[in-house]
User: Which sequence fits this backbone?
């Protein structure tokens, strides 16, 4: 299944969170050096080009959003 540029941009806009935002949402200390490892253990991945965290999977993802997440995760 082909993923369009528009779908990639929509996914990034709708699902990406910067470091401060995700730490606040999940209750992590933004200044803790182990926070990145905790986020990865909780199923998030960092996309350097956007400076954002994304969930690897989510029960709220549509099937297409999961394909986009998989694509980004595997091609970062």
Assistant:
């Amino acid at each position: 299944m082909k993923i369009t540029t528009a779908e990639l941009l929509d996914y990034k806009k709708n699902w990406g969170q910067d470091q401060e935002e995700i730490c606040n949402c999940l209750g992590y200390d933004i200044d803790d050096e182990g926070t990145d490892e905790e986020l990865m253990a909780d199923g998030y991945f960092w996309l350097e080009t956007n400076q954002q965290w994304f969930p690897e999977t989510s029960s709220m993802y549509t099937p297409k959003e999961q394909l986009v997440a998989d694509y980004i995760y595997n091609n970062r």
Remarks:
- Helices lie at 5-15, 19-26, 35-41, 63-74.
- The chain has a mean pLDDT of 95.
